[in-house]
Task: structure prediction
Amino acid sequence: MEKYSAYATVKFVGNGEEYISGVNCHDWLYCHQCPRWRECCEPKCSRFVRDREYRAFFLDFCEGVRNVLEVEDERGEVQTHLPLSDFCIISDGQGVLCDRRATVRCIAVGGCGDVQEGKCYIATRADSALQYYYVLDESNECYWYPKRLFTVESDPLGILS
Result:
């Protein structure tokens, strides 16, 4: 939803076999998601190479814990929900992987089922152009919600402005 200008540098230390992509029904996907990935002879592409450095753009929540990254892969595509444990942070001078958060209160549900009116939530970023907040909702995952559904309760670092 947003374009990245700031990034951190991370080194891939995970198992590269888990990040090999192949072709299945004309769609690129991780080979291990394909039922025949072990015997597949389609072209393959390594998304991450062990000990190589990459650009990381965001530290996100997964099941209520902030432990997954958005990282640019070998093809220049940003991959989401990659385990932080598969990467080592080399540098983060701009603080993009810091645990910056704000608190927002839901003032209207507006057809969005995973937030409750009157309840406070953690928001970790905003998309000003599209008028959305990235909110950790009742499902314990982050999703983009329209700003009009919330009021800002606390934003000490100004991440939502």
The chain has a mean pLDDT of 84. The first strand starts at residue 8 and ends at 12. Residues 8-91 form one domain.
